[in-house]
Structure formats: structure tokens, C-alpha cells
Design goal:
- The complex is a heterodimer.
- Chain A is an alpha/beta fold.
- Chain A has 2 domains: 224 residues, P-loop containing nucleotide triphosphate hydrolases (Rossmann fold, 3-Layer(aba) Sandwich); 67 residues, Alpha-Beta Plaits (2-Layer Sandwich), CATH 3.30.70.100.
- Helices cover 38% and strands 25% of the residues of chain A.
- Chain A contains 12 helices and 14 strands.
- In chain A, the strands form 3 sheets. Chain A has a 6-stranded mixed β-sheet with strand order 6-7-8-3-9-10, with helices on both faces. A 4-stranded antiparallel β-sheet of chain A has the order 2-1-4-5.
- In chain A, helix 9 packs antiparallel against helix 10.
- The C terminus of chain A is likely disordered.
- Chain B is mostly helical.
- Chain B has one domain.
- Helices cover 75% and strands 0% of the residues of chain B.
- Chain B contains 12 helices and no strands.
- In chain B, helix 4 packs parallel to helix 7, helix 7 packs across helix 8 and helix 10 crosses helix 12.
- The longest helix of chain B has 29 residues.
- Chains A and B meet through helix 3 of A and helix 1 and helix 5 of B.
């Protein structure tokens, strides 16, 4: 059963000149995680805002837990939690103040709100900073508090709009840990991200969107195989490139590709680890000692590149480059 | 709907909590009007001739009270624009709370702040020689008028804050509206010295009618200008009441609608 569904959503801005969503459809099955992956301006936030009742589409339908988002926004609001790109909490107040206030706004009693606030602060390791104003928090702490605020009444469906954008690597790892815990608890989650590794790490299924449309969807593995299977990569001394290429082509049965700048030869392989062992053995016999060798599964950036013809923008391109440089 | 009032009160409490967490805001928002009282009393007070018993300060205080509550418009708008920008309004709108609660709560908070500011100003005024002569019930009525005027204006502030969204722009817009309104009036100087066209404006200006209403309620005869036999200057209480009701009738539904449909 689908917990979230969007059917042919269209949303334009500036009197139709900007098409933020262009016939976008997606579903999230109950108890699963869908990651909406796309570059800046692809329509991720607009999608979340419509599903979370903040924005009305020009046309199309949306349902959350079977309830029409456009016709019954009040009912939907009782079932969802939303945590946005910018930490939407009152910065002048303390973490504790904020959570108690949101508890009251969810119509919990005073004592109940206090208990729930303490419980969530404990769970997100914020107890020590509970009595400090949010503006003294680190980026990661803010996001955790923001997430805590969206969990006050145990939502059926949780929307997280770029939960780790702008966080340092440590903050991101912490946030991932927190999100993974939640998912174990069985919440249905729709998460947007421009980080390919994040979608890979957290989601059951990925919907790649670009220019307001879903351009591909499936599991992380399915998307990867859409781009091609594994590749064997070997890095050797310049003098040994010719011989190495021959060995790789013999074992894989495919044409090898040379990246001469980094002296790396690669070719698609279908037999996985066996091909790796065969190549290693042949190299050893030929007295070639590779400086690096490995099987590489296509990354989600390869997927994105293959699907859209451009890499995911700005922030996303940074970790991408690092990953390529420092391959295994 | 059942929770509309308690939701609004939660929002009001949040605003009071903010003031408790950063008491500087409270200190400065009361220092400014007190400073105005002192400046006008001692800088202009000597050079503006009046035949008012008790001196210029008797005429000044109603003017400065009205000016101060008029600035509620800007402070409400700025507060709301900041909440919009930080995404707090989005979060509130994603909660199962009644539509009006967030904006109603904000107007309550600003109204409470006005009570405090008016109290401080009245004390400062008393210290520099302001002595209303009309007796407790009428003095109370004057403050009730001021309070209501501030409340009505904060609904315009809600609308401006939601429409403009950017706190700095809101601040400029707020001053652009409130400065001409407060100075093109009988608040600080007689309207009789103004060009004819501005006199008409000044006489119908809600700030003038409010100031005149307060002067009347504080027991003054001199309306400071109002030479023309215009209806508003002869019926300042009625005109002011009419303005307040009109503002609320227009801006309460408009602002709640705007809140409901707003999006960044």
C-alpha cells in the first residue's frame, strides 16, 4: 500500500514562465524510504511542500496515507512530520523551549509536552544543550533538534527536505545515524537530497528528478545496472600499460579503456571477483605489480551523468570528485 | 477550532519567552519612546508656543503615545517577516493548528508589549510634568483607545510582514508608512502651519484623530490645529473608533487569508 502518492503534479511560478514541477508522479510504499534525488532547482522542495500541505499544485493530485492533500490538508497535518532545508526552530529560544512549544501546538498537555521534549532531547543526544539558545548550537545539533520537533507525535509519514545540506562530514554521519534509527522504527520516509551517496545509504528506492520530472526510478542497484555493471580498474607504471591492457582485455573479453592521466586501465567485467583474481594472477606471472586494482560498481553520479547528461550541481559535485580521485 | 485560543496563547507565550531570553530587546523597545518623550519635551517644548495650561508637555504626551503605538505596525511586521524567512511559518503551517492561531498569537504578544511600553511612557511623562486632569475613568478610556489602535495597526503589520517577507525591507516600509503618518498630523505641531492640502490630509489622518481623541479624554480643550470645521476634528472619538473598526474588518480576514495561502 502506498503511503504517499503524487499524480501528475504541475506547479508553475512567475505566471507560468518557470515550470517547477512538470507532470511529476511518485509513490512511497508504507514503511519504506524513497529518496528524491536531483540537483538544485530540480523541483525537490516544491514536491515536498505540496505533499506537506504548504503549497497547492496548479494541477494533479496528491495523497498522504490515503487522504487528499489538497482537499483535506488539516487531516494530513495530523499525520505528517516535516523537517526542512533550513532549521525551522526559534533560534532565540532554547532547545527545550522549542520542543515544549511544539508539543503544546500538537495539543499535548503541559506535562506530556515536557516529558516528550526530555525524551527527544535524550534520544538525539541534546540533553546537555537543552537549556541553551538554539543560536549557540552547531549546524548538526540544529538539524537534530529540527528533526526532533517533527517527531513529537510519532508521524506516520516523515518528509525530510535535504536534511544534511550544509553539514560537515561529521554532522552528516550523525544525521544519517539518526535517520537510520527512525527508519528501523518503521516510519514511511520521503527524503530529498542532492547527495548521491546519501540516497544510496538511506533509501530503499530512489527517484531521480530533473527539471520537475522523474527521469528514473528504482532501487539503487537497479539504477546502477541501468548504467552498466561492474568495471575492473588497474593502475600501473606507464611502461607496463600496453601489457596490462592485453591481460585485461583477454580476461574480460571486452575492450579496455585507458585513462592515461592517472595510468588507469579499465574494462567492464561480468564475472566479478573471479575476473579480479584471474587478472591478478596473470599480472603476477608477467611480473607486473599494480599500484592499485579493484572492482568498481558505478556510483550514483555515473547514473546521474548517464541519465541527465550533466553532473548534479554545486555541493554534490564536491564529494563526487573526491570519490573519483581516491578510489579503492 | 476547539484549540484555536490555546494555540494562539502558545504562540504569544513563545514571544514572551523570547523577551525573557533576550531582555535587551525589551529594554531598548522601552528606552526609545522614553527618549522621544524627553527629546520633544526639552528640545521642542521650549520653542513651540501654546496657550495650554501646564505647557507643551500636556499636548505632547498624547501625540507621543499615539506615535509609539503606531510603530506596532512595523514591529509586528518585522517579527513575522523574520519567522517567514527562518522557515518557522512553514513549520507552523505544517502543524495541525487552526489557521488564525499563529497570527492572532503574534498580535496578542505585541498588544501585551504595548501595555508595558505605554506604562513606562506614562511614568516618564509624569516625571517631566504631564498631568492629565480628566479623572481616572476617562484616562483609562484614553489608554484603552491607544491599546486598541495599536492592536488594529498590528493587523496591518501582519499583512505587510507576510507580503514583504524580508525583514529589512519590512523595516523600511514600516518607517515609510509610519513617519509621514505620525508627522503629517497634529501630534507634535499645529496643523494650521501646514499648506492647505496637507491640512486636509492631517485632519483626516487617523493619527490626528487618535491624538485629538486622547487629548479630549485627558481633559484638554486645545486640539492643536484643527481650525477647519472638518468632521473628524470635531468628532475625534467617533472617527478614531470608525478607523479602528474599519482596519480590523479589512485586515483581520485579509491577513488570515494571506497566512493560509502564503508560501516562500
Amino acid at each position: 500500500m502506498n503511503s504517499v502518492s503524487a499524480d501528475h503534479l504541475v506547479k508553475t511560478y512567475n505566471k507560468g514562465s518557470v515550470r517547477a514541477l512538470d507532470d511529476l508522479s511518485l509513490e512511497v510504499a508504507e514503511g519504506t524510504v524513497l529518496s528524491v534525488l536531483g540537483p538544485n532547482g530540480a523541483g525537490k522542495t516544491t514536491t515536498v511542500r505540496i505533499l506537506a500541505t504548504l503549497l497547492k499544485p496548479d494541477s494533479g493530485k496528491a495523497h498522504v496515507a490515503g487522504i487528499d492533500v489538497i482537499k483535506h490538508p488539516d487531516k494530513v497535518r495530523e499525520l505528517i512530520g516535516l523537517s526542512g532545508q533550513y532549521a525551522a526552530v526559534d533560534e532565540t529560544l532554547t532547545g527545550w523551549d522549542n520542543l515544549v512549544m511544539f508539543g503544546r501546538l500538537y495539543h499535548l498537555g503541559r506535562q506530556q509536552s515536557i516529558d516528550r521534549a526530555n525524551e527527544l532531547l535524550e534520544r538525539f543526544s541534546l540533553t546537555d544543550s537543552a537549556r541553551r539558545p538554539i543560536k549557540t548550537y552547531s549546524g548538526g545539533m540544529r538539524r537534530r533538534l529540527d528533526l526532533a520537533a517533527s517527531l513529537i507525535v510519532k508521524p506516520k509519514v516523515l518528509f525530510l527536505d535535504e536534511p544534511t545540506t550544509g553539514l560537515d562530514p561529521r554532522g552528516r554521519m550523525e544525521m544519517w545515524g539518526v535517520i537510520e534509527e527512525l527508519v528501523k522504527g518503521g516510519v514511511t520516509l520521503l527524503l530529498t537530497t542532492q547527495y548521491l551517496e546519501e540516497a544510496d545509504q538511506l533509501a530503499d528506492e530512489i527517484a531521480v528528478i530533473d527539471h520537475g520530472k522523474v527521469i528514473a526510478r528504482g532501487t539503487s542497484d537497479a539504477l546502477k545496472s541501468q548504467v552498466g555493471g561492474e568495471r575492473l580498474e588497474v593502475t600501473v607504471e606507464a611502461a607496463q600499460i600496453a601489457e596490462t591492457t592485453k591481460i585485461i582485455e583477454r580476461v574480460s573479453g571486452n575492450t579496455a579503456h585507458l585513462d592515461s592521466a592517472i595510468r588507469t586501465i579499465s574494462a567492464p567485467v561480468s564475472t566479478g571477483a573471479k575476473a579480479l583474481m584471474d587478472v591478478l594472477r596473470a599480472l603476477d606471472e608477467a611480473q607486473i605489480h599494480p599500484s592499485d586494482i579493484g572492482l568498481k560498481r558505478p556510483s550514483l553520479d555515473d547514473v546521474f551523468m548517464a541519465l541527465t547528461g550533466h553532473v548534479a550541481e554545486e555541493e554534490a559535485s564536491e564529494p563526487v570528485r573526491k570519490k573519483r580521485g581516491g578510489k579503492k | 477550532m476547539k484549540y484555536a485560543m490555546s494555540d494562539a496563547i502558545t504562540i504569544t507565550k513563545r514571544q514572551l519567552l523570547q523577551l525573557a531570553r533576550i531582555p535587551e530587546v525589551l529594554v531598548f523597545s522601552t528606552i526609545q519612546p522614553v527618549m522621544f518623550v524627553l527629546l520633544f519635551r526639552f528640545v521642542f517644548g521650549g520653542s513651540i508656543a501654546t496657550n495650554q495650561p501646564g505647557g507643551y508637555v500636556q499636548l505632547l504626551m498624547p501625540g507621543i503615545f499615539v506615535q509609539t503605538v503606531a510603530f506596532t505596525l512595523a514591529s509586528t511586521a518585522i517579527g513575522l517577516a523574520e519567522d517567514m524567512k527562518k522557515g518557522l511559518i512553514d513549520r507552523f503551517r505544517s502543524l495541525p493548528i487552526s489557521r488564525g492561531a499563529v497570527v492572532i498569537g503574534r498580535t496578542f504578544g505585541d498588544a501585551l508589549l504595548n501595555i508595558l511600553v505605554l506604562t513606562v511612557m506614562a511614568t516618564a511623562g509624569f516625571a517631566v510634568g504631564w498631568r492629565p486632569t480628566s479623572g481616572a475613568p476617562k484616562i483609562f478610556a484614553a489608554f484603552l483607545f491607544l491599546f486598541m489602535f495599536g492592536y488594529a495597526l498590528s493587523w496591518i503589520g501582519i499583512y505587510v510582514g507576510l507580503a514583504v517577507k524580508e525583514a529589512r525591507t519590512v523595516q523600511s516600509v514600516g518607517f515609510l508608512v509610519t513617519f509621514p503618518l505620525t508627522f503629517l498630523s497634529n501630534a507634535f505641531a499645529p496643523t494650521t502651519g501646514m499648506p492647505r492640502l496637507l491640512q486636509y490630509f492631517a485632519e483626516w489622518n487617523p493619527v490626528s484623530t487618535m491624538v485629538a481623541a486622547c487629548r479630549q479624554l485627558f481633559g484638554l480643550k486645545n486640539q492643536f490645529g484643527a481650525t477647519a470645521n472638518s468632521w473628524p476634528s470635531q468628532h475625534p472619538l467617533e472617527t478614531s473608533l470608525m478607523y479602528m473598526v474599519l482596519l480590523m474588518v479589512i485586515f483581520i480576514p485579509l491577513s488570515i487569508r494571506k497566512y493560509k495561502n502564503t508560501s516562500n
